[in-house]
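Box 3.1. Reading complex inputs
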Amino acid sequence: MTDISNKIPLSFFEDKDVLALARSLLGKSIFTVIDGKLTGGIITETEAYAGIIDKASHAYGGRRTKRTETMYKPGGYSYVYFTYGMHHLFNIVTSRKDDPQAILIRGIVPTEGLDIQLERRNYIKNKFHIANGPAKVCQALGITLEQNNIPLSGDVIWLQNGELNTEKNIITCPRVGVDYAGEDALLPYRFILSHPDYKSAKNPLI
DNA sequence: TACACGATTTACT
DNA sequence: GTAAATCGTGTAT
């Protein structure tokens, strides 16, 4: 069950090295309490978005709009946005205030509130498909725009340290769906944790 | 105001 | 494998 003493503090996300941070999130647990329901899982896939010099980032070139304003918050805030007219994507803002770096959570292995996650996912039959994609993660955990721009240290969304040794089980590869970013689309900013209960939807190696 | 498109998922040919 | 779903956002007019 949840151990509140194990909650990861906001200061953890103020690290300026978003790549190291994205890698270190693998194996950690994420929990949400939304609509009064506790759900959670082990983070198994992340992508780093490296601030104003990253052509794949919404904040490229220092773009600052109503949507991206959240990315300029201090590390530890949530950045949730809506895309394709139907999907929500959840990010963790990192680094310091006004340095808009973020980590997209692309996949989890559900561990808490599995029945609730299945209900939200329309009782999908293949257990590997419950949360193996960034929009599926949001759907399974109940995350919508209502959870945008909140600190990840409260009782709505938070992270906890895991017990897995992930060091030798991480695959690094290019990010997904960022062809518009030109040469930056090839950067190895995506991290996947090998886990017996996880199959990445967008990687043939796993 | 108008338009093109997206850090995706799902169903279907 | 391909295409539809579906609308907020960013940028141009």
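In summary: Strands of chain A lie at 29-34, 37-49, 78-83, 87-94, 101-112, 157-160, 170-173, 190-193.
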